[in-house]
From TrEMBL:
Keywords: Cell membrane, Membrane, Transmembrane, Transmembrane helix. This is Methyltransferase. Pfam families: MgtC, MgtC_SapB_C. The chain crosses the membrane at residues 6-24, 36-53, 65-83, 95-128. It comes from Streptomyces roseochromogenus subsp. oscitans DS 12.976. It is found in: Cell membrane. Residues 153-227 form the MgtC-like C-terminal domain. Residues 13-133 form the MgtC/SapB/SrpB/YhiD N-terminal domain. Belongs to the MgtC/SapB family. It is a multi-pass membrane protein. GO terms for cellular component: plasma membrane. PANTHER family: PROTEIN MGTC (PTHR33778).
């Protein structure tokens, strides 16, 4: 080894794997996809690649190798990102792997104190910012464009099921956080009952009402079910036939 002794090699490698393992312990404890071994191996790999460039004695090589490590971890992190419905899962895991690689690069470069500081920062982000994120999620989100929106839910059911369906409608509105402002009932001579429930909405009206429609459309006594916003044209009406 031209510029790196065996002791320095072993020391830097040990610090790299230890810091990666510390990050992985927290991930393993939280039962995340990438745990102890994965984060430790990412840190070891990044450390070894940079240590190799140090060992061959090329002064400019460690920086180039570190940039290649960053690119390689980007591909590895992309493999843990999954799409679930309309959301994405695994971004935090991918970012943690990226940080483990950065910790390994710091260890391999001999900046052991900086490596420890970086590890402590990653752990602090996971441990201390998690409660802050949950607190922010609990704060009600207000969208001025959707405040004060009113909609009408139309429902046709069998006369014999009227009492049951009305109770389900009231319960579903309450469960979805919708505020009913009125209910009109009309019975025809064919044994059917038409219900029209006016509701006040805050937030995304389509999401709240589609969930309501999906729940009520499963009832066997419901023959027709749809909703529309009171201030929109007929083209905005969404229908779901039970």
């Amino acid at each position: 080894m031209a510029n790196l002794t065996t002791f320095d090699f072993a020391l830097r490698l040990a610090v790299g794997v230890a810091c990666g393992a510390l990050i992985g312990v927290e991930r393993q404890w939280r039962a995340r996809m990438a745990g102890l071994r994965t984060n430790a191996l990412v840190a070891v790999g990044a450390t070894l690649f940079v240590l190799y460039s140090e060992a061959v004695g090329d002064a400019g090589s460690p920086t180039r190798v570190a940039s290649y490590v960053v690119s390689g971890i980007g591909f590895l992190g992309g493999g843990v990102i999954l799409r679930e419905g309309g959301g994405v899962r695994g971004l935090n895991t991918a970012a943690t792997l990226w940080c483990s690689a950065a910790v390994g690069v710091l260890a391999a470069s001999g900046r052991l104190a900086l490596c420890l500081i970086g590890t402590a920062t990653v752990l602090a982000v996971h441990v201390l910012l998690r409660p802050a994120g949950r607190l922010i999620d609990r704060v009600p989100q207000r969208d001025p464009d959707n405040e004060g929106v009113r909609a009408t839910v139309h429902l046709i059911c069998e006369r014999n099921d009227e009492t049951h369906v009305r109770a389900l409608l009231s319960q579903a509105l309450a469960n979805d956080g919708l505020a009913p402002t009125g209910l009109r009932v009309r019975r025809d001579d064919e044994g059917s009952t038409s219900l029209r429930a006016a509701v006040a909405l805050n937030g995304d009206p389509a999401r709240a009402l589609e969930q309501l429609i999906a729940r009520l459309s499963l009832e066997p006594g419901v023959r027709d079910l749809h909703w529309h916003l009171d201030d929109t044209v007929l083209d905005s009406e969404r229908e779901a036939v039970a």
